[in-house]
Amino acid sequence: MKKKHVLTTVMVLLISVIFAGCGGGNNGAQTTETGETDWPKETVTFVVPYSAGGDTDTYARQLAAGLSNELDNNFIVVNTVGGGGVVAGSSVLGASPDGYTALFHHTGVMLAQEAADAIEFSYLDDFEMVASVARDDTYALIAKADSPWTTLEDMISWAQANPGQLRYSITYYGATHAVATMMENTMDIEMNNIDVGSATADRLTAFMADQCDVLVVNFMNIEDYIENGDFVVLGIASEERLPGLEEFPTIKEQGYNVVLSKIYEVRLPKGTDQRIVDTFTEAIEAVATTDEFRDILARYYAEPFYRDAETADRENREEVEVLKEIFAE
């Protein structure tokens, strides 16, 4: 397995940004007469590691809209792609710890990279955790409708008869990598893992151009293709069938323990004033627990999933240990 040096080039390109952002050390927090912080006084930016339109971007924008109302301040999204999320993570890592630049990312990539020791920084140790926001269990394994297989068992039989020939769209050290490892381990198959990019749009383009045979992707990104009959769902990587998607079997119920949830979280630069972190956390809880937020996420077959910083950090570390065991198999 590739290790940290895979992304060294990206980190070298970013080092000047990081050093520039780390200077000063003024976190910008001011205390009111009641002892509370006056944050936020200006626009807060969510840095999202992927292009507009995908699941991470969609949920970030929904949270930003809710927080703008909750805190009577502007929250915006900036899409910063590259390096499998490393460019976005590094830009926030090096930002001023004043509460105005936050990372909105999901555990599917962050924890896989952490478990694989694949990046030069730690999402768990080098940021201030704020809260978890949403959860999406709709990671669907799909094939084209005109492929040689339209069921999971057909795909497995073909892959076993043709070792190393099933072309799978992978982003190394991300959610797709974790799913690939679980598939190969539980299905007794060997796939031809092809990296066509980390952005959902790039992966879908490569899939439709017949550069790969199967891929996993959040259902919201392929719903139209399923309805049009272009793609077929071989299974969903969830523990049980999902509300609104009951017609699609899980991979687990078909006999293969392939389960992966993507939990979307907010992080701030290390050293951010704890009063800012606490205010941010409380505001996220207020938004994430509303019926309005729940109903919005339900459109994408996702759900609110609020966890405070302490709970999220503890459970993320536990999940990293599980992923380490998966990658070691």
Topology (elements, then pairings):
Blueprint: H1 8-22, E1 44-48, H2 55-71, E2 75-79, H3 86-93, E3 101-106, H4 107-116, E4 127-136, E5 139-144, H5 152-161, E6 166-169, H6 175-187, E7 191-194, H7 200-208, E8 214-218, H8 223-228, E9 231-236, E10 262-269, H9 274-288, H10 291-298, E11 303-308, H11 309-328
Parallel strand pairs: 1-2, 1-3, 6-7
Antiparallel strand pairs: 3-10, 4-10, 4-11, 5-8, 5-9
Helix pairs in contact: 1-3, 2-9, 4-6, 4-11
Protein name: Tripartite-type tricarboxylate transporter, receptor component TctC
Signal peptide: 1-20
Family: Belongs to the UPF0065 (bug) family.
What can you tell me about this protein's structure?
It holds the Pfam family TctC. By secondary structure, this protein is of the alpha/beta class. The chain folds into 2 domains: 4-10 and 34-136 and 262-328, 3-Layer(aba) Sandwich (D-Maltodextrin-Binding Protein, domain 2); 139-254, Periplasmic binding protein-like II (D-Maltodextrin-Binding Protein, domain 2), CATH 3.40.190. 40% of the residues lie in helices and 20% in strands. It is built from 11 helices and 11 strands. The protein has helices spanning 8-22, 55-71, 86-93, 107-116, 152-161, 175-187, 200-208, 223-228, 274-288, 291-298, 309-328; strands at residues 44-48, 75-79, 101-106, 127-136, 139-144, 166-169, 191-194, 214-218, 231-236, 262-269, 303-308. Helix 2 crosses helix 9 and helix 4 packs across helix 11 (309-328). The longest helix has 20 residues, at 309-328.
